[in-house]
Design a protein that fits this description.
There is one protein chain. The chain has 188 residues and is of the alpha+beta class. The chain has 2 domains: 101 residues, Phosphorylase Kinase, domain 1; 66 residues, Transferase(Phosphotransferase) domain 1 (Transferase(Phosphotransferase), domain 1, Orthogonal Bundle), CATH 1.10.510. It is built from 3 helices and 12 strands. The strands form 4 sheets. The chain has a 5-stranded antiparallel sheet, with helices on one face. Strand 10 and strand 11 form a beta hairpin. It is globular.
Length: 188
């Protein structure tokens, strides 16, 4: 199947401040963002699971909250996107891409899927973790933090609900929207 000519393809977006739609001029496009429609939602209550229809991979879709935002994407979301695009480590949640919906305020982060967070796991466990399991979890959290710190990033919101676990027992640190990178001159 031939690739569509991106220069000729019209992109129409719904206006936020007034009724109607507008067309994005080709010179204002910075590449092509995939649509969230290319993902089949597999949601159960409280989940954000989806299947990428191009790769069949199960991913997590996180909607960027645009509450009361008049001037674009919230700074915390920009910070999280910027940080996660730079980071690649087995114990840090992976941001795969950013996709868009039909409206300017519909932006989604496509992330590696983790089956549960540690907070809900601890809440629903019939018996506590064994000493060996605790050691394994703590080592994975520390490896992720070590990677962040070696890259001059402070998480600032480390809690059990931001520690995610895959079905294979891999612990990944998420919730980097409050993360802060230290610049070379020592300022935040």
């Amino acid at each position: 199947m031939a690739e569509p000519d991106l220069e000729c393809e019209q992109i129409r977006l719904k206006c936020i401040r007034k009724e109607g739609f507008f067309t994005v001029p080709p010179e204002h496009r910075l590449g092509r963002c995939r649509s969230v429609k290319e993902f089949e939602k597999l949601n159960r209550i409280g989940e954000d699971r989806a299947r990428d229809t191009q790769t069949d991979e199960i991913v997590a879709l996180k909607k960027v909250r645009m509450d009361k935002e008049k001037d674009g994407i919230p700074i915390s979301s920009l910070r999280e996107i910027t940080l996660l695009l730079r980071l690649r480590h087995p114990n840090i949640v992976e941001l795969k891409e950013v996709v868009v919906g039909n409206h300017l305020e519909s932006i989604f982060l496509v992330m590696g899927y983790c089956e549960q967070d540690l907070a809900s796991l601890l809440e629903n466990m019939p018996t506590p973790f064994s000493e060996a399991q605790v050691k394994c979890i703590v080592l994975q959290v520390l490896r992720g933090l070590q990677y962040l710190h070696r890259n001059f990033i402070i998480h600032r919101d480390l809690k059990v609900s931001n520690l995610l676990m895959t079905d294979k027992g891999c612990v990944k640190t998420g919730g980097c929207n409050l993360g802060q990178a230290l610049s070379l001159d020592g300022t935040w």
